[in-house]
Amino acid sequence: MSENVARRGFLVGGAALLAAGCTSNEPAAAPTSSAPAPTAAAGGNDQPGDRVVIGFSAPAADHGWIAAIAKNAETAAKQYSDVEFKPVEPTNDINQQISAVESLIAAKVNALVILPNDGQQLNQVALQATAAGIPVVNLDRVFPNKLAYRTWIGGDNYGMGVAAGHYIGEQLKSKNVSNPVIVEIQGIATLPLTQERSQGFADALKEYGFSVTAKQDAAFTVETGNEVATSLLQAHSKIDAMWNHDDDQGVGVLAAIKEANRSEFIMVGGAGSANAMREIQSGTSVLQATVTYSPTMASSAIKLARLIAQGKGMSDLLEKQVPQSITLASETITKDNVADYMSLGFES
């Protein structure tokens, strides 16, 4: 996500907690996070190679998704004896992040993984790294100038909306619901990433002859999520489906739903938090699915930086070099497959 919000360019995944991808810099309780346990490196490209130093810079963890981003990056680096992980102090201050990245350039690291607070404002320092011969793996919030990074990896905001729309459309069609009341709780409505999610949602629903009845943004915070959900529940005495873009703000949304004692609709979340997965797994919640924007993308970014720094390609591809761009699929987590995803969930 390329916006100045503490999250995916959004928060996610998972991650993105919240993107989003995606979230705000509003104060929040200190989050906890989880990452897959390190596993022994396997064969092929995972065999020890030239020792490389990988610098890492990301926003401060004011939400679970961002906390999980940092944890996933660190966990992935620990899997390799040939990697020295060199993170800088996380910050939500643009100038401080620029200074931190400049310190990594001065340290002559072999590769950089950067999740910028704002891709536009950190574009110049990323160009400086590239000019210094340091390949940059741009994580999530994209730099506008492709010369600023060697490889971009991030989530699919449009795909999140498509996945949510298809799940809701299929569920309502199977119940022969006509003219459904569908409400949408966005993150920050003015952000491109939010607009992409909403567009994907609308496009998917259209295939079933459905459309969004009402939508409101909730700023990617628990508090605002609670307020917005309360307002929507009061405005609509009957709802058939709800899509909440972000599982972090979803904590507040679910609290409002429980407070209102409403259960007549199905709800889909976004990012893939552990608490959302537990709700789905319980089988007793209106939350029946969530669509992923996983912070595991940070683990993959570290792996890609290592390969690039060592002059390797991806062993499953015929090409000799790592691709220039990798967009992760947004997967739909339901009660049927939630057990397979629990280890990847992050705590809101």
What distinguishing features does this structure have?
alpha/beta, TAT_signal, Ribose transport system substrate-binding protein, signal, carbohydrate binding, 16% strand, SBP_2_dom, 348 residues
Overall description:
This protein is 37% helix and 16% strand. Strands 2-1-3-4-5-11 form a six-stranded parallel sheet, with helices on both faces. The longest helix has 18 residues. The chain has 348 residues and is of the alpha/beta class. It contains ten helices and twelve strands. α1 packs parallel to α9. The protein is elongated and about 60 Å long. GO terms for molecular function: carbohydrate binding. Belongs to the bacterial solute-binding protein 2 family. Keywords: Signal. It holds the Pfam family Peripla_BP_4.
